[in-house]
Amino acid sequence: MPNSILVTENELKKQEKIMKEIAELNKNKNLFYHIETYGCQMNVHDSEKLAGMLEKMGYKYTENIEEADVLLFNTCAVREHAEIRVMGRVSQLKELKTKNPNLIIGLSGCMMQQKTMVEAIREKYPFVDIIFGTHNIYKFPQLLWEAINSQTTIVDILEDTKNVIENLPIKRDNNLKAWVNIIYGCNNFCTYCIVPYTRGREKSRKPQDIIDEVKELAQKGYKEITLLGQNVNSYGNDLDEDITFAKLLYKLNDIEGIERIRFMTSHPKDISDELIYAMRDLDKVCEHLHLPVQSGSNKILQRMNRKYTREHYLEIIDKARANIPDIAITTDIIVGFPGETEEDFNETLDLAEKVRFDAAYTFIYSKRVGTIAANMPDQVDEKIKHERLEKLIELQNKISIEKSAKLKGKTVEVLVESISKRDKNKLTSRTRTNKVVHFVGDEDLIGKLANVKITDTKAWTMQGELVEVIR
Ligand code: 5AD
Ligand code: SF4
């Protein structure tokens, strides 16, 4: 067994050396990078790490892909739609490469963890310079170096890894709110989902590494952290230490300077009483639970390998609401999973009405090669899938609007995030329940907690008036 820490340290030293060499090479050259990110927050945060490395190597960010010397596409494989979009984008890049022969094009992320995809790209788009996956983004400097010095496509994909890589440079998109990985990978194998194949088995970061990162963020002035994992509730299961996700929350709640702690995503089968009590008792942990239900039909939940029933799900919601008044609950729902009948779909509608989610991310089932559901009989007709999606969205919109409307006239605590993009006289802020509130206020309030009175509401965004600045 290789010593994973040693492997990590040696590898990182090597990468740091290469970063210095490339930085030296790039000195005074005024080179630019652009990253296009697809998919989930995990990918968004991976892109922040790639950006961190690129900046260390002397590249500057550009919005304009025509200007880029390094162009990365950090891809998503969760649904076919995202894959088609990426392929379409890549097919257009040949022209850029003709204009700037030194341009380095790299593809990374979940799509690249699929062998057939890599083969297809190499065949169709030989002008792509680097292809790498989710387990070795730390190796990007070396791959870039090799690509600069070679004419062929550099491909480096690891099937899985036991290593957790710490201390990569990170260029964060925001200076108030930060993503913090706590666990990588997924062991659940929901039958529709490609993630366990592209992100590998669960690997928790050590609590001390997470605490150190959050302390550093607090020192830099960050106010809010969002803990990331495909299933944050299994945090610690793979560690020798006496730690659970709830215990981690207690430790992070003590860090001075951080005002708000959020997390995503939770799996209903792993929600513990300990977690609900932690959410109830810890002042910084926000009253928002993103709890994907996927379907309201027990038959479909079983075929999805979700390991809970609708009854169990409803019990968790009751318990959460009994302990955490005004908690916002959001969810993910898939329609048109193989074998989903009208009756099954009606159970999903019924569950949505019973729970009354604050918001739901709704998806049409997308067949993913390599997953169990892809080979299931009774795949649902596309037209029916679309009709069901529309019905579900209509119901959820109605509920979201009604739920938000209840806040009208109430005073809520917000964290002020930025100047509003739509109206420069207004500020954009967020409630603890993650809803957006716009209100008239001075730019100085950015980064502050304030109380605002809600004056008007839509499904997810609201208008308000400043009552008082808290701190
Ligand atoms: N088809 C449709 N939606 C999917 N999701 C995951 N895999 C698929 C798929 N094959 C959805 C789930 C998950 C969210 C991130 O994406 O609802 O919670
Ligand atoms: Fe995919 Fe299920 Fe894991 Fe979520 S819990 S990443 S849906 S396999």
SSE topology sketch:
Layout: H1 4-26, E1 31-37, H2 41-56, E2 59-61, E3 70-75, H3 80-91, H4 94-99, E4 104-109, H5 115-124, E5 130-132, H6 140-148, E6 154-156, E7 177-181, E8 183-184, H7 195-199, E9 203-204, H8 207-219, E10 224-228, H9 245-253, E11 260-264, H10 273-281, E12 288-290, H11 298-303, H12 310-323, E13 328-335, H13 342-355, E14 359-364, H14 382-405, E15 411-419, E16 426-431, E17 436-440, E18 449-457, E19 461-469
Parallel strand pairs: 1-2, 1-3, 3-4, 4-5, 5-6, 7-10, 10-11, 12-13, 13-14, 17-19
Antiparallel strand pairs: 8-9, 15-16, 15-18, 16-17, 18-19
Helix pairs in contact: 1-6, 9-10, 13-14
List keywords for this structure.
six-stranded parallel β-sheet, binds 5'-deoxyadenosine, five-stranded mixed β-barrel, alpha/beta, Transcription Regulator spoIIAA, 471 residues, binds iron/sulfur cluster, Rossmann fold, 22% strand
What is the highest CATH level, the class of the largest domain? Answer: Alpha Beta
User: What is the CATH-assigned architecture of the largest domain?
Assistant: 3-Layer(aba) Sandwich
- Helical fraction equals 25-40%
**Count of individual helical segments:** 14
Structural class, please? alpha/beta
Radius of gyration: 23 Å
Determine the mean pLDDT.
Answer: 94
Number of domains: 4
Cofactors and ligands: 5'-deoxyadenosine, iron/sulfur cluster
The overall strand count is 19
Q: Classify the fold: give the CATH topology of the largest domain.
A: Rossmann fold
Global geometry? globular
Question: How does this structure look, described?
Answer:
This protein has 14 helices and 19 strands. It is 36% helix and 22% strand. The radius of gyration is 23 Å and the shape is globular. A six-stranded parallel beta sheet has the order 2-1-3-4-5-6, sandwiched between helices. Strands 15-16-17-19-18 form a five-stranded mixed barrel. It has a three-stranded parallel beta sheet with strand order 7-10-11, with helices on both faces. The protein folds into four domains: 148 residues, Methylthiotransferase, N-terminal domain (Rossmann fold); 113 residues, Transcription Regulator spoIIAA; 107 residues, 2-Layer Sandwich (Transcription Regulator spoIIAA), CATH 3.30.750; 59 residues, Nucleic acid-binding proteins (OB fold (Dihydrolipoamide Acetyltransferase, E2P), Beta Barrel). The N and C termini lie far apart (51 Å).
